[in-house]
Amino acid sequence: MDDRIHEHARVLVDWSARVEAGDDVVMSVAEGAHDLAVAVAEQLGDRGANLVATYGSDEVSRAYLRAHDGEFDADPEHELALYEAADVVLRLGGGRNTAATADLPGETRQAFARAREGVREARMATDWVSTVHPTRSLAQQAGMAYEEYQEFAYDAILRDWESLAEEMATMKEILDEGEEVRIIKEKTDLAMSIAGRTAVNSAASVVYDSHNLPSGEVFTAPYDPEGEVFFDVPMTLNGKRVTDVSLAFEDGEVVDYAAGQNEDVLGDILDTDDGARRLGELGIGMNRGIDRFTDSILFDEKMGDTVHLAVGRAYDACLPEGEDGNRSAVHVDMITDVSEDSRLEVDGEVVQRNGRFRWEDGFEA
Amino acid sequence: MDDRIHEHARVLVDWSARVEAGDDVVMSVAEGAHDLAVAVAEQLGDRGANLVATYGSDEVSRAYLRAHDGEFDADPEHELALYEAADVVLRLGGGRNTAATADLPGETRQAFARAREGVREARMATDWVSTVHPTRSLAQQAGMAYEEYQEFAYDAILRDWESLAEEMATMKEILDEGEEVRIIKEKTDLAMSIAGRTAVNSAASVVYDSHNLPSGEVFTAPYDPEGEVFFDVPMTLNGKRVTDVSLAFEDGEVVDYAAGQNEDVLGDILDTDDGARRLGELGIGMNRGIDRFTDSILFDEKMGDTVHLAVGRAYDACLPEGEDGNRSAVHVDMITDVSEDSRLEVDGEVVQRNGRFRWEDGFEA
Asked: Do B173 and B137 belong together in one domain?
């Protein structure tokens, strides 16, 4: 087995999830993630953790959901019990076809997501981490050769996370102290409040409240957005390519939306529940190790010189103790390129202009 | 997808497991069983059951178990909770290498089996069914071409189960009324008590207390065996070929054993715990649809003109209400051919001679 797979497993188990002896671990294995699953199982055995492996197969999900009448039982007892008792959930993505669920009706996805809200809350109360095993399917999605994609993915995953965490601490401090963020670029002038919210220095470890590997972003939970925003980075939502998304916010909610392609997929997501029309996240990509878009949100949103917003659920780590923030069955990220003709302001001061932060060489105030 | 896979899924869900709307189902998917998993998920969705899919990968298990120090936590809370809350457990076997765990030390298997006894009991308290998806690995194990093996497997699985159940009822009646069974053939003269025990008409459905698909055997839980028995059918135990097994019983326990090949594997099994040296099952193969040995216990033990015994755990369905019977972390079946120069007696009367039952043409009393 490729040494990089073993190293990926070690980073996931030690740096990201901080697994300890006796931890009850659920490891979800996508169709193409078998080799990573074997390497992670080895690490878990070595640590003396307890393992339940689940099969995270898109094709199995699609078959189940398409055959169901759509009247889903809420939070099945066995599934809820598994996640409520788990300490750690490791999600090993990496399928064989990124469009495997493309023919699932939007209303089926929405109904199922609503019926699993308790399961999702239980899972997110664990030390969960999502990662992907680089598969040929993901290489294809990125428009890259398989070995080229492996290089790309491991460059993003096998980093010096401690050192990146230090770099990101400066941005976290600015957001923690700030009250209002404004993003200005072509077709975009969006203001939102962040007062009282805590930013996460997302350094790919649960000790930083960071649950993605790779990571490399600073994010918070904004509210009361006003204005318009344009997302020029294409994305794949529910198995379909969605491009050139515009959202218009009034009184904190999406009042108008458009997309260049597959606008109906966007509409389905916004219709999931009330929270799906409000913001759940503002994230600032700071991982310059990720040097190109690969049409995978796990990587794209961490790329340097990008900013992303998510509609839907806010992460608890950004909220004051006891405050709920935005609740939703969905959390869908959308990315905008801020490398040119753009600026990010916090409380009226420019923090980033044309992709340069104010503490970097070449920044123009 | 091959129509036979869909039909297999329908038989499993409807005839075998009797899945109903609202049932909480765990489906374990072996490495090679993906296509069957998709077909079963479709059936479960259609019935309105709730699905958790687990990944039953031998390679993942091997990696975990080999890396572990062997001091396993007893019955991890999350795994126990999953099975305690489940109504149905469907085990879809069919790996990519039947020897995938061949290099696991026997003591590791034993220690792990002992540490999961509560999980196993919880799983067996559900409406559980084990089946296999015919894979190339199983074809190879059987010494057959892939398509030839598929034919064989589906002939065994897609049967008229209702009609076979009627045929087997006669044998169940004889065993239910009998007190002592004796098996006599070359190197074999074994007597055992079955008084007070209830035979299972194993017609591949939970309503018959039958948990294998295919099935086609009548089995009970014998005790106090005395004498010797020779198993001339080769088998694969813990990934290794074991041949020509002899067991000698005194006062109900194995006091001597031998094997032509891999005797140490047999020894490891018998050393698991006290119950591993006592009998857990006497089974009479009555499925004449299975016409050859394929080195897979699921099929071999159901073949007509064979008898099998298992050391280890007895099935509750054979025991009087509230009686424990033989307990063990293992249940290992061994098969003997009774088609020639052999007889099976119940209370001194010959029930089967040279492969013919007494209600069949050609039977010689």
From this structure: no
Q: Which domain holds residue A203?
A: 161-357
Residues of chain A positioned with their CB less than 8 A from the CB of B44: 64, 67
Distant-in-sequence, close-in-space partners of B145: CB < 8 Å, separation ≥ 6:
B139
The domain boundary residue, chosen from A108, A140, A157: A157
Q: Do B54 and A54 touch (CB under 8 A)?
A: yes
Q: For residue B31, what is the nearest residue in chain A, using CA coordinates?
A: A34
Q: What's the domain count of chain B?
A: 2
**Do A212 and A318 share a domain, yes or no?**
yes
* Contacting residues of B for A83, CB less than 8 Å apart: 78
Which of A127, A157, A187 is where one domain is finished? A157
- Asked whether the beta carbons of residue A78 and residue B24 sit closer than 8 angstroms, the reply is yes
Question: Mean pLDDT throughout B39-54?
Answer: 98
Q: Is the domain of B142 the same as that of B239?
A: no
This prediction has a pTM of: 0.86
Cα four-point dihedral sign A64, A69, A73, A74 = positive
Residue A264 shares a structural domain with residue A167: yes
- Per-residue pLDDT averaged across B137-145, rounded? 96
A230, β-bridge pairs: A246
A3-35: per-residue pLDDT in tens? 999 999 999 999 999 999 999 999 999 999 999
Q: Given pLDDT bands bounded at 50, 70 and 90, which one contains residue B324?
A: confident
